[in-house]
Amino acid sequence: MTTNTHTQTTPWYFNPMTILVTGCLIAIVNFGIRSTFGLFTLPISVDHQWPREVFSWAVALQNLVWGIGTPIAGMLADRYGSARVLMAGAVMYALGVIGMNYSNTGLVLDFTAGLLVGLGVAFSSFSIVMAALGRLVPPEKRSWAFGLATASGSMGQALFIWPVGQTISSYGWHTSLIALAAMALVIIPLSLPLLIQNTNKSATVKGETVMTMSQAIGVAFAHPSYLLLVAGFFVCGFQLAFITVHFPPYLAEHGISKEVAWLAMLMIGLFNVVGAYMSGIIGGKMVKRVPLSAIYFARAALYTIYILTPISVTSTLIFAACIGFLWLSTVPLTMGLVTVMFGTRYMATLYGFVFLSHQIGSFLGVWLGGKFYDIYGNYDQVWWMSVGLGVFAGLVHLPIRELRAKAFAAA
Amino acid sequence: MNFHGHKFALGFFGAVFVVWVVVMVLLMRNAALPAEATGTMLAVFDPKVSDTEALRIIGAAQGKIFKQSGLSFAWIVTADEPGLAGRLKSNGALGAYRELPISPALAGCFAVVDTKVEAIFH
Is the ipTM of this complex over 0.85? Predict the structure, then answer.
């Protein structure tokens, strides 16, 4: 292992600010498109005379593929550069979305909406963008940039729903999918400034240790603090996926109207933007493990208060605002910790594995929510499980050593 | 990197929001139903219009409330006679649109389209 110094003059289109803007736009498009798939359930199912499970299964598959695809995309990004991976992701994303128009059987839909879109989302995801930003932005601005990129993804979720809903309503779902596929292709030109970040030929950031990818993965998985981070992010996925999927029916069972449920989910989305950005700022000013731990403890406290008090419109909206604030606020801090421990050279890969743990947690949160509901007729067990896991995650983040791992320290 | 982070973020999000508003205005203009349209539709009013005034306009347009939209300035209305969209507009509504396929499901980190949500709310 040796230390490589790397200097480069940059034209304007490789300026960090240009890259930051295009990177954030990629995050908006990537998150925005996938957030609209719920709107297609009804029209596609009705047109094909499918039970809703057909579409639901394809989207569930998409989320699993996204999780599995993220470390793979990360490895490719760390080897061949983020721009190329983002471009490949955009193509897969567009092909998957346009392919949904021609999916006349459930199996074909699994291939297009499930596999292709899942890979497309993973390869063009904001974690790839953030890894690139991590290398290009000065260390003192890094956490802020992570917060900005995460907030952009959150904003994309909120911004795409209404126009896409309107497009489906006015022009039909076929036309809407064509428009979304075209939007996915916009990621290609937006990725061009990131070509500077091409890490092929082992061009590493100044002062960082050079080692092979397999060495880096091996060192990370032998590093206790990394394992604690992986365990903690599992909880994040579990808690959020449970709320995402099971919160609206939970509200309906407690007599909360569809409109309030919709408003609650909207508030989660909007407060998420603020929370993600704030978390990036906080992560840049203090040790990251403490606010990260506090987020999980706060989530556990929020869940406890909410389920122990009578469910009302007011309590629901306050809960939605608070949980929205804490929603993706874990991301800039988690990514920041990966960078602190291992530097930026293999950031996309190593964050990819952390994110895979998140998606496994998500899958279990959704699945156990439904399973326990079928057994007990309510969500109480899973709410309390979320509380327990929140406390667990709060505790496991505290002993994380916020230092560069020994093998990654520059010689 | 020589810029102030928060100003940059505010400018970026502000610019994105402005573009979004422009796109929405264009979309809504094209999405407005023609005057002769009838059936079930979304009647949109000026947000300053009171519920009483909105109900008066719907009544004057010979429409009936189908259901609430959840937004005070938008009502889902219906009529059998042709021309409901035109009558709503001439009586003071901002416009009439097809109902949006929005449901209270957020596609977060795990965007599963839940059949239970659909079954409960639709």
Answer: no
